[in-house]
Structure formats: C-alpha cells, structure tokens
C-alpha cells in the first residue's frame, strides 16, 4: 500500500501528501474522523475513522483520486507584474493560498493604481470622489480581500481573521503581523504549500 494520502475537505481533493504530512494534518485537526481519505490500495474514499485498519489480504483495485490539488497561482505570481495578473486572474478565489510576495506585490500595485486614479481625477477636476477613483476602487475591492484571505490561509489561519480589519489600530497591527508571517510549510485545509 502506498504511503501517499489524499484527503477531501468541502468537496475538494488535496494531495498527495506524505505519511508524515498526513499525520501532521491529523494532529493539527485539519483531518478529522469524518474527513474523507484515500490512498492507493483502497477501494474508495472512506472517513478517516474507518480508514485506520486497511490491511487486506487480497489486493483491491484503486479508484483514482477526486482530483490532483495544484497550486492555482500563475507561475510568475511572485514577481511584481505577475502578482497583478494573478490578483485579477483569481479575482474571487477565497479557497486557496497566496505567498508573501503575492500579497505584498498586490498591495503595492493597489496603492500605485489608487494614486494614479486620484491623480487622473485631480486633473479632471473631479476631486477625491471622482469617477476614475470610484471605478478603480470597485475593480480592486474583491481581489484585494481575496488576496488577503488567501494570505491568511497560507499562514494556516482561517479567512475569518480578516474581520480584524474592522478593529482600528489593534486589528490592523495583528493582520500586518499575520501577513508578514512565513508560509505554513505543511499542507493545510486550503491546499499544499505553494511550489515557489
């Protein structure tokens, strides 16, 4: 029997992960007793509590995993221009992970674009609430939240931590610390660590 595992959370397959990574996911609670798991040699996906003793004398024809979990980020997502493309390509992706460079390059792009929009509105005489600034704000609103939540996922935290943004000063400081935290090296419920 293979030592590589696949597991499914919220209908999405993740894996393969090594036996050590799998045991780590069990110990941190990502894989619970009701989480569906599969490895080569198993007939079908089973809840983890039932997959523990799978020593069988007769070989079992395996089914293929639900899907191979791949990093959905662009290959150049950790570069200055690639982060902008990746941010818009994964416009409302709230379920995967983003690395530190992806988050911080996107943040820099958002600032640059907002300053440019404000400048254009100033030239047009529209002031602070001009149409260009409004359109830019609408265009980058959802991708900015999505990148921030994916960054929290990459540190092993749930996206709900993003709600700290509504707690002035203290919440912002906590979020900045989270965003500066290095990538969680093990697989977690939002996928495998990025390959970059």
Report the span from N to C terminus: 30 Å
Supply the number of helical segments. 6
Low-pLDDT runs of 5+ residues are 53-68
Beta fraction of the residues? 5-15%
The overall pLDDT average reads 82
Concise account of the structure shown:
The chain has helices at residues 19-28, 48-51, 80-89, 100-124, 131-154, 170-180, and strands spanning 5-9, 12-17, 36-38, 46-47. With 196 residues, the chain is of the alpha+beta class. Helix 3 (80-89) crosses helix 4 and helix 4 (100-124) packs antiparallel against helix 5.
Q: Any overview of this molecule?
A:
- With 196 residues, the protein is of the alpha+beta class.
- The protein has 6 helices and 4 strands, in the order E-E-H-E-E-H-H-H-H-H.
- It has a 4-stranded antiparallel beta sheet with strand order 2-1-3-4.
- Helix 3 packs across helix 4 (100-124) and helix 4 (100-124) runs antiparallel to helix 5.
- The longest helix has 25 residues, at 100-124.
- The two termini are 30 Å apart.
- The model is unreliable at 53-68 (pLDDT under 50).
């Amino acid at each position: 029997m293979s030592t590589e595992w696949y597991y499914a959370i919220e209908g999405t397959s993740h894996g393969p992960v090594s036996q050590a990574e799998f045991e780590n996911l069990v110990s941190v609670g990502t894989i619970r007793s009701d989480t569906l798991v599969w490895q080569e040699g198993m007939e079908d996906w089973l809840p983890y509590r039932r997959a523990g003793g799978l020593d069988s004398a007769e070989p079992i024809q395996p089914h293929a995993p639900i899907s191979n979990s791949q990093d959905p980020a662009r290959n150049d997502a950790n570069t200055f221009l690639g982060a902008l493309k990746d941010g818009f390509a994964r416009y409302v992706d709230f379920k995967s992970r983003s690395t530190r460079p992806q988050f911080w390059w996107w943040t820099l792009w958002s600032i640059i674009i907002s300053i440019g929009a404000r400048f254009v509105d100033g030239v047009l005489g529209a002031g602070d609430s001009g149409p260009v600034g409004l359109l830019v704000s609408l265009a980058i609103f959802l991708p900015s939240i999505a990148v921030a939540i994916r960054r929290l996922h990459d540190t092993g935290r749930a996206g709900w931590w993003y709600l700290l943004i509504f707690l002035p000063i203290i919440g912002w400081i906590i979020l900045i610390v989270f965003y500066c935290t290095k990538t969680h090296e093990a697989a977690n419920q939002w996928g495998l660590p990025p390959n970059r």
